[in-house]
Amino acid sequence: GRTTLLRHLTYSERRHDRAAVFIDGGAAADLRSFVDLVAFRLAAAGIGTRGANGPIEAPGGPPGVELIEGLAPVEATGERVLLLLDGIPAATDAHTFFGRLRDSVWQLPYTWVVGAGRDERGAFLTPPADAFFEVVVDLPPFDPRQQLELLRARLEGEDIDPAGLVTGQDLSPRVTLEVARAAILLDRPATEVLDALGGRAAAAGALGGGARMLFDELESLGPVSASDDRLLTRLGWTRERAVQVFKQLEDAGLVTSYPQKGAAGRPRKVYKLVGLQPDDIASGR
Whole domain around residue 90: which residue ranges? Predict the structure, then answer.
């Protein structure tokens, strides 16, 4: 999926001795913590930044300029660093950072590669943010041929026929791999696994419309916290409402949670869908 692609690009660039830094932008809570996260990841890669403690609404200039200037490297090497960004806290933050603050961001010696969901495109491509991105690549769901290519690459060297893991339906890379993984581990046909995934969604729907909506978003976004701005924006919910429905799904055995440590502060609670079990396929749950 998107995250795997960005991580692969990061690895590929580093293999060729080019500076590249992967950043999980969705882990930040707001624009300030996002900037802090970028600085943290740069520092982890050995790139020290000047730092800035100014307010988002910096006096004497456009909002956030002082904050952005703090991301400039302490030592200029003449080499542009590739920053591979997987999401950003919220649509408004994306539009602010790459739109209203684009002139300041442009001046930094970084090349940005940003991955975002379809529902987030507007924030990145609505003027003036659209001027920041020279190239936009759309990644639609994989058709069966593309799924087969993906599985062949993943199963190279394994005594497994990837053709038997393709269902014939267009699927996202994440679902393609989830179906294949479950089919191999549970020794069941891929079509039955896909049906079971549909049954699991139906089980979420039986808990109520809110549970089904949240379940669908988890399938789309992957692991998220109850305070994830992307999630709350897409659902139109408060954090409290998300926590309530997450508990419903967790009590039903459809979701599990774990703590995830961020760049600063206390670990946040992240939720993800529970993997399929043999009984799920047998019962169609």
Answer: 2-132
